[in-house]
Amino acid sequence: MTSLSIVIPVFNELENIGPLVHETVSHLRGRVAFDIVCVDDHSDDGTRDVLTTLKAEVPELRVLLHQQRSGQSAAIRTGVKHALSPWIATLDGDGQNDPADILKLLAARANANPQVRLFAGWRVDRKDSASKRWASRWANRIRQRLLRDDTPDTGCGIKLFERAAFLDLPYFDHMHRYLPALMQRAGWQTVSVPVSHRPRGTGQSKYTNLGRALVGIRDLIGVSWLIQRSHVTPISELNLGRKP
């Protein structure tokens, strides 16, 4: 069994996914037993052809294909469900996450409390447009005030989490943006780890500021409701033992 599965959701990243996969392999091979699961969310730009070539070149790579467009959260969940490892690292398919930071997240896990089941990347120096940074800054402030998840950056694509804990969370579209709050709702601890961030090489972002804001308002209300309507129940097992 591998000790780490890298899940990369991909949609129309024809020129970005190849370099990202090779870079990930160069950082991890020989340091940790891993596999890479690329989930193509029904790309229509030739990304699947690139993944087919990569599959022949990279023995650690597995490729899963959505037969219809389902969104980033669905692609992440597909990858996690088919992963071979009990721990998952995620990367965005656009190459803006630095795969070298996976090792930083693993180092944070090695020194953390066992109750921490999510290590979330924190982009301390974002390389996005000013408008995108401004929109993200306000969204983070509103989210933190409403959900009180003590997480400065939930939109960062690079994360490390336990597979079983993730699959136990309620699933909904865009859930990947609320993983710290959902993990905390389930009774686990989360830690934010500063990571680097890079400009997008080619292609276009799949989200607009307005579209993300409209969806985010609805999701925030839903996640807030989930947190208010749930609690964690401590469990112990009765063990009578045997009399001598």
Automatic annotation (TrEMBL):
| Claim: Membrane is one of the keywords in the record | yes
Q: Which SUPFAM superfamilies match?
A: Nucleotide-diphospho-sugar transferases
Checking InterPro entries in the record gives: Glyco_trans_2-like, Glycosyltransferase_2, Nucleotide-diphossugar_trans
Q: Where is the Glycosyltransferase 2-like domain?
A: 5-166
Q: Name one Pfam family in it.
A: Glycos_transf_2
Keyword Membrane appears in the UniProt entry: yes
Q: Name one GO molecular function term.
A: glycosyltransferase activity
Which CDD domains does this entry report, sorted A to Z?
DPM_DPG-synthase_like
Record key words, sorted = Cell membrane, Glycosyltransferase, Lipopolysaccharide biosynthesis, Membrane, Transferase, Transmembrane, Transmembrane helix
Query: What protein is this chain from?
Result: Dolichol-phosphate mannosyltransferase
